[in-house]
Write a structure and sequence with these properties.
Length: 71
């Protein structure tokens, strides 16, 4: 199963100076959209049974935890 979302990175710039004799300070923050996706298998395992049909072993097939990745 794959899901997508948009997250945001931010860039901040600061400006300091004077206008005439007056001090000027300004901060600008810009948000940049970043696409992300996550793929996971909610049920990914094998169940092994013995001759008496009892569960002998359960093998997890997931090789890593699901995590959000940039597209």
């Amino acid at each position: 199963m794959t899901r997508s979302r948009t997250s945001y990175d931010t860039v901040q710039s600061n400006t300091h100076g004077t206008i005439g004799n007056d001090r000027y300070d300004s901060t600008t923050t810009t948000s940049i959209p970043v696409g992300q996706s996550i793929t996971y298998n909610p049920y990914s395992f094998f169940i092994y049974f013995d001759a008496d049909e009892n569960v002998k072993r359960v093998e997890d097939l997931c090789t890593s935890a699901a995590k959000w990745e940039r597209q």
